[in-house]
Amino acid sequence: MSDPSAQKAKMKSAKKMRDLMTAYYIDALSAGQNNKRVAWITSGGPVEPLLAMDIIPVYPENHAAMIGSAKMGEDLCTKAEEMGYSTDLCSYARADISCSVVKGGPLGGLPKPDMLICCNNICGTVLKWYEVQARFYNVPLFILDTPICHTGYTPEIAKYVRAQIDEYIAFLEVVTKRKFNHEKMATVGKLSLEGQKLWQKVLNTTAHKPSPMSAFDAFFFLALIVTLRGTQIAVDFYTELVQEMEERIQNGISVVPGERYRLLWDNLPIWYQLKWLSGKFSEHNACLVADTYTSAWCGTIKYIDENRFLDSMAEAYTRIYLNIGVDQMADQVLEMIKFYDVDGFVMHSNRSCKPYSFGQLDIMGIVQEKAGIPVLMIEADMVDPRNFSQSQVETRIDAFMEIIKQNKG
Amino acid sequence: MEEIKIFRDAIKDIPTLASNIKKSHEKIVGYLCSYAPEELIYAAGFHPMRLFSSKSDIILAEDHLQTYCCSLVRGVLEDSLSGRLDFLDGTVFPHTCDSIQRLSDIWRMKGKYDLFWDVVLPVKLNTQSAKIYMKDVLNRFKTDLERAAGTTITDDDLNRSISTFNLIRSHLSKLYQLQSRNPGILKGEDLYSIVKGAMVMDRDEVARLLPLIVETLEKTSPPESRAKRIVLSGSICDSPGIYAMLETSGAVIVGDDLCTGQRWFEGRILENKDPITAIAERYMDRIVCPAKHMNPVVRGENIVALARENKADGVVFMLLKFCDPHAFDYPYLKEFLDNEGIKNMLIEMDDQQENLGQLSTRLETFIHMI
Amino acid sequence: MIYAGIDIGSITAKAALIEDGKLIDTLIIKTGYNHLNAALKVFDALLEKTKIRKNNVAAIISTGYGRASVTFADKALTEIICHGVGAYFMNPEIRGIIDVGGQDSKAILLDASGQVVNFAMNDKCAAGTGRFLEVMANAMEVELDQLGDFSLRAEKPAKISSICTVFAESEVISMIANQENREDIIAGIHESAAARVAILARKVKIKAPVVMTGGVARNVGMVAALEKHIGMKLFVGAYPQENGAIGAAVLASKL
Asked: For chain B, which terminus, N or C, has the lower number of CB atoms within 10 Å?
């Protein structure tokens, strides 16, 4: 993954993060030689029970983001198209599906899964994607079905998801032929919660003016809370990262030199354009101080009880940002606008992500009305650059920043 | 046939149909998905009405849904915002797909109608916990309907509803069997009108008319047919023009895997057990939609069996552009058919306007090839 | 016996005449608004050109977008079937056809006997069609038929990433604004269109030898870009645009 913060005061943690991710992938890729099992799991899926069973979790979505950052998306998406997958489908899924077949991408393909764990709290696409992979690899698939909470978490949903957590554990016991380790689970649960709290702390440091880091850094530093949530490694790393951010604040180091404008980002990153976008906003002395995407991995802390981790996990995983009604999402956006004190809202209308993108226009209206700040919508795609027009986006960003400058003087 | 004409006329003018229904029914409840529990709506004394896009230009919906949302979802929202669905008293959304999930939010936030329900059914249909959840959700919906209707829905109400829907569904099955045995006994467009009518017309009238149609057809000697036998697969087919186009190209539809076809009406509800349990079981066991999960290969096995049973010369996938669940399944369904040597082709359609020129080129070529 | 094929495309109308399994001649005119008129005009003009009397033509098959409008034809068949037959008639070795016309691009796979066994067409988007190249030629202020020569002179083709014709045009315009090398931009345009068409070719698992037909086959830049993308040589016959009409005439002889 390219580090978009290269042109600024270097962050010490960036190198460490790369080393940790490299080690993690080497570990995963050599799982077979070390008699370890690999599970592929969706980005919003409950990873903790896997760790409690010493199963190595691998995230095709993280891998697809790497493909996007490495600018390998177009080629792999095209290959998927040739296999019959419509160009309108999610580019993460397309890139991953063809990558499995051609062993492409920055790693030459992910390690073969022994099982697939699919949680549909982020979208219905993952269900179809994992069915494709279940057929391709011919391995068992477990689906954690988390009904969307349009207006709330009903008792029926609570009962259903909780029952599935037990099914999940039974599934792991069958696949691994081992008893579930409840003791280890308790430890992992505590580490997971601690990691999430630290990640939240990292994100909170950008409320400071000027901001020590930007959403572009968050996109980069996110990888660990996704892939190593529930490990000591993540806890240690984020402890250091919080420290580094606090030092930057004390020393007055801002990520955007001469930060004058603060913006909030919505939806997934445009992985193949991070550097350009980051530079583009910097030119305008604008910093994307926060986003709705990276906060998804610490947005349900309030539902987790570390002493009843498995029980409370059902609720936490079901009530994540994407699995709630659009009006509730808008409320969270408004809270973020207040907390980070932003001057403008940038929405990525992402052709690859329907649950994230449909409803954005309504959120836009709510934000304009209630927060009274300008909103920009960019139409693009997270991995497939063929749905992105740099010149069009550039014109829009410039116009948007002009409005913000007029407003703020 | 007079009875078929009733169907044809009814679906031509939905608002008029709705205002006639209003005279005898308390309320009209719209839905967009074949998993909507119509039996409960009907048992509450309400009229369940499936919504289709009127295919008007998208103007107001542009402010809510981007262009990469499918034409059905955008079209129905346009109809609602422009007042074309003002006959509705409410809507029910069983969780269908990512797009309809967000349509439900937008619909609810707009608050145009008195009644609104999300009935978030399980996506998984192969576990005991999902079955329990299915029942729980249906029971909750029943309670919500009772509140809206100001009455209690008794087991007798439910049983009456179940037998009406069983009758409708089994007669639609019979029609399809007749068409498959004697292709051309019904014009494709008539079959389309009957099936669509059964989703929007007064169900008691549908239940009265269907047996008459089946009876008449059973006595009709079928035309000699040398047409190529086609099975359609996809989500909705709301383009009667397609049937005519296929027929003029020398083909006939002998079966389908559509949610406006066999996926919607195949599968009966058991009549001598707890009605909610029986309804839940039918929704768990019916032919699965790609937005639900039974097992990773069930739809592939289904499409092959469907083609075999109907002695199909070919399968035409008619997919709505931007429909993710179907687009994800297409490559594997194609592979299953290819492995069995069953010819197939894909058409990507837009519900709004059909590029008929290119479409007929493809269909004719395909029919020529098989 | 003499047989005729008439292909009414979105931009041009083509006619072909064959006699005893040999091609007599062909003709191309602009289609215009009225398909039937175009058909009558191109047919009459070809008869005029070859000095053949109308009642000596034993049968006519129409094809292309406007095939149904050709009321005087004995039968209408799709251009895919006709392209297959036409290509096979011109060269029985041919197994693959890539046809890029005004509105459509297609890839067709034939078996050893010239039967169409598989085909793929672009969806309703104009990427990778003649129309796309036309829009781009306008943006570049280059005549459409010079586009190919320009692209062959490129040193480093520009990267046009957008699939959408409108997006791609705005990309091209911003490249012009940056004063990027004209030949490079034009080569990039061909690359982008060829990439779209190549997907169709791979979808049908095209086999060599492959012939390219349709108006765009006359664009050397597009042929070169496509050859690179599919990794096969493309043959362009003497009548790339009339291939559909020729196939229709051959089929008329079998009525």
From this structure: N
Q: Is B364 close to C77, i.e. CB distance below 8 A?
A: yes
Percent of chain A residues topping a pLDDT of 70? 98
CB-based contacts of C142: which residues, under 8 Å, 6+ apart?
A: C150, C182, C186
Look up tokens 């046009």; give the residue.
Answer: C160
**Per-residue tokens: A90:** 């999610």
Contact at 8 Å (CB) between A100 and A136? Answer: yes
> DSSP for C68-122?
GG-TTSSEE--HHHHHHHHHHHH-TT--EEEEE-SS-EEEEEE-TTS-EEEEEE-
CB B328 within 8 A of CB A128: yes
Closest CA to A219 of A264, A277, A268, A261: A268
Pick among C161, C164, C197, C203 to test the A interface (most A CBs inside 10 A): C161
A122 and A353 in contact (C-beta within 8 Å)? Answer: no
**Whether A84 and C203 lie within 8 Å, measured CB to CB:** yes
Beta bridge partners, A58, equal: A40
Per the model's pLDDT, the better-predicted residue between C178 and A185 turns out to be: A185
Q: Which residues of C164-201 are buried (b: 16+ CB within 10 A; e: fewer)?
A: bbebbbbbbebbeeeeebbbbbbbbbbbbbbbbbbbbb
Residue A116 main-chain phi, psi, to 5 deg: -125, 130
List the strands of the sheet with A38-41, edge to edge: A56-58, A38-41, A115-119, A141-144
For the segment C46-51, the average pLDDT, to the nearest whole number, is: 97
Test B108 with A325 for CB contact under 8 angstroms.
Answer: yes
Q: Does C124 contact chain B (CB < 8 Å)?
A: yes
Which residue matches tokens 């672009």? C122
Position A337: which residue type?
I
In the prediction, which pLDDT does B348 show?
86
Report helix, strand and coil shares of chain B as percent, to nearest 5.
55, 15, 35
Q: Which domains does chain B have, with CATH numbers?
A: 11-123 (3.40.50.11890)
The C-alpha atoms of residue A3 and residue A11 are separated, in whole angstroms, by 10
Q: Which fold has domain A12-408?
A: Rossmann fold (3.40.50)
- pLDDT value of position B352: 60
CB neighbour list of residue B217: distance below 8 Å, 6 or more residues apart? B175, B178, B185, B186
- Beta bridge pairs of residue B321: none
Distance from CA of C219 to the nearest CA of A (A): 24
DSSP class per residue in A5-35: TTTSSPPHHHHHHHHHHHHHHHHHHTTGGGT
Q: What is the mean pLDDT of chain C?
A: 93
Give the C-alpha distances (Å, rounded to integers) separating A335 from A204, A330, A338, A356, A367.
Answer: 13, 9, 5, 18, 10
Tell me the backbone φ, ψ of residue C254, rounded to 5 degrees.
-105, 5
Q: Which domains does chain C have, with CATH numbers?
A: 1-91+239-255 (3.30.420.40), 93-236 (3.30.420.40)
3-state helix, strand, coil in chain C (%, to 5): 45, 20, 35
Tokens representing residue B123 in the block:
């996506």
B118 neighbourhood in chain A, CB within 8 Å: 148, 150-151
pLDDT at A2: 41
**Is B124 in Cβ contact with A124 (below 8 Å)?**
no
In this prediction, residue B354 carries a pLDDT of: 53
Q: pLDDT tens-digit profile of A106-138? A: 999 999 999 999 999 999 999 999 999 999 999
Task: Flag whether residue C167 sits within 8 Å of chain A, measured between CB atoms.
Answer: yes
Burial class from Cβ neighbours inside 10 Å (0-12, 13-18, 19+) for residue B186 reads: buried
What is the domain partition of chain A in residue ranges? 12-408
Listed residue (B352, B356, B357, B358) closest to B70, CA to CA: B352
Which two structure tokens, joined as six digits, stand for A1? 């993954």
Mean pLDDT throughout B276-300? 97
Residue to substitute from B67, B71, B358, B363, interface C, most C β-carbons within 10 A? B358
pLDDT of residue A158: 97
